[in-house]
Amino acid sequence: MTYPQHAWLAIGPRRVALVLVVSAVLAAASSAAPAHPKSAPPFVLPGRAGTVALDSLRGRVVLVDFWASWCTPCRSSFPWMQALHEKYSRRGLTIVAINLDKDRAAADAFLEENPATFTVAFDPKGKTAEAYRVEAMPSSYLIGPTGTVLHAHAGFDPKQTGTFETLIQEACKP
User: Do β-strands 61-67 and 139-143 pair in parallel, antiparallel, or remain unpaired?
Assistant: First the structure.
């Protein structure tokens, strides 16, 4: 069997257009999620109430969120994370919000305005953010009980909180 020199023309321009659109959508979808490690990099950081170590949370679902005092969307994400903490902490969710400010006073001022009863840790050198390949603020990583990164999300959009909460519900199922 012989094929025309441009075999794709034989399938018709509509099908070619459909293939191109589907390819573009798949490419966009794969690039929308930030690159992240498969296994959550361990960390040991100072926190408001002592040392925070990811390894000590093994067996729980952990939402690691990177934030900074200058981050405008972080001001919206903190009340949402507080609500998640109140709703899911008894079901196995632990939230660890890692601050990346070099100046601890700026982080403390932010926390005065945006109270949080979940765990807050401090990484002024940003080494943990480097390990997680953080590219935007805030950035969130949902980590399963075995230490696998289940989902990563850069930025905060209140319209997408339902999708993220569904992932948390699934991860917290017994």
Answer: antiparallel
Q: What is the C-alpha separation between 170 and 61, in angstroms, rounded?
A: 10
> What amino acid occupies position 127?
K
- Domain of 26 in residue numbering reads as 1-32
Q: Residue 172 catalytic?
A: no
User: Number of structural domains, the chain?
Assistant: 2
Residue 74 appears among annotated catalytic residues: yes
Q: CATH code at 65?
A: 3.40.30.10
Report pLDDT digits (tens) over 46-102. 999 899 999 999 999 999 999 999 999 999 999 999 999 999 999 999 999 999 999
Catalytic residue among 74, 81, 129, 134: 74
* Residue corresponding to tokens 């943990």: 128
Among residues 71, 95, 137, 149, the one annotated as catalytic is 71
